[in-house]
Amino acid sequence: MDLNRLRIENYRAFASPQEVAIAPLTLVYGYNHAGKSALLRALPLLADSSTDISPTPLNLESRAVRSASFSDIRCRRFPDTPIGFGLQGTLGQGLDFSWDAKVDAWGAPLSRQQLVAWHTQWGGASKLRELRAEAVSDVMSPAALAGHYHVRGSDLPDGMATLSLDGLAPSLKEGPPAAEVGMELTRRILRELRNSIQWLEAVRRRPDRRERLMGTAPRQMLPDGQGAAQLLAADQSRELLSSIQAFFRGGSSRSDNYHLDLSVEAEDIRLRISPADAPAMYADLADAGEGMAQVFPVLVALARAERGGPGDPRLVIAEQPELHLHPRMELRLGERLCALASLKSPPRVIVE
Question: Which residues contact 65 (CB under 8 A, 6 or more apart)?
Fold first, then answer.
């Protein structure tokens, strides 16, 4: 999946509809408490709301919302208006799509969520198809009609359908069979979104001195960077490690030119860093300067996005990737991001 646009409405500080273009390199910058993190975290929230791991349309157990309630993530200016999200992009084989959804909640304390409407479009200008669905509402008892929707769309007359939801992903329980085409496409969009994103929060976890080698590498790192060493150790080609080593060796002087080494000793992974011209003067990455530990999972995420192999997330969302880096290393990281954006088939990187 290649995402091109994100839309949000009545979410956190964003009361009015906002549309953000997602380029090969997208920079989000501004004052503290201006909404930067909220904007970035909309995507991992949607990704965590895309499967049956979510008991409600919006998964408020997602790390992206920091244990927030529905009222916490809804803009306080319009407390009676649904929250809106939208995505636009391309799936495999050049299939363009657009998806928009609105979620509301009722009860005390807004514990009952409902996907009140969604709209999915796919195809091209010559043959654009769509599916629209709006929840059947009952002011007296919303719960009584949960799962019932008016549906309409391409090759589909207006009608009624009963749906089940895995998070935001709909499945047809009862209704016109033609609606299932649009629902399967909607499920695919959300499923691929989850597999396409590597989100790294602002403060990453310092690597362990020794980490037990697991039988299989994780599909993604956790938002704090946990799993980065496992991904490197599982890469038999050492392509990822070579990419990260090239970054650390990119200094113009001895003082900012390093060598990173990965070894597996008695099934323990060990990461060491040393001056490039003095490998015997190594230290465990766990003992390295804070900036080295903070940037390490960012570099792993960028290397995977560049490789673009099966299972490699091609959309990296990084909060403060330059945290604790020396200005010369910050410059090097900026050059790395620009180099990625200049590739013939670049990944997508969103940086706060």
Answer: 41, 45, 72, 73
Per-residue confidence (pLDDT) for residue 157, from 0 to 100: 84
The pLDDT value recorded for residue 125 is: 67
Q: pLDDT tens digits for 230-260?
A: 999 999 999 999 999 999 998 777 778 899 9
Which tokens is 4 given?
A: 């091109």
**Cα-trace Rg, the chain:** 22
Alpha-carbon distances of 118 from 40, 57, 132, rounded to whole Å: 22, 12, 6
How far is the C-alpha of 126 from the C-alpha of 60, rounded, in Å?
A: 39
CA-to-CA distance for 312 and 236, rounded, in angstroms?
15
What is the per-residue burial (b if ≥16 Cβ within 10 Å, else e) of 281-304? Answer: ebeebbebeebbbbbbbbbbbbbb
Q: How far apart are CA 144 and CA 163, in angstroms?
A: 14
- For the segment 178-182, the average pLDDT, to the nearest whole number, is 92
List Cβ neighbours of 215 (8 Å cut-off, separation of 6 or more). none
Which tokens belong to 217? Answer: 């590498």
Report how far apart, in Å, the C-alpha atoms of 250 and of each of 143, 244, 247, 277, 343 are: 59, 10, 5, 13, 19
Give the span between the Cα atoms of 86 and 20, in whole angstroms: 10
Backbone angles phi, psi at 344, to 5 degrees: -65, -40
pLDDT given at position 224: 97
Predicted confidence at residue 142, as pLDDT, reads 53
State pTM to two decimals.
0.93
Residue 102: in which H helix or E strand, if any?
A: strand 95-106
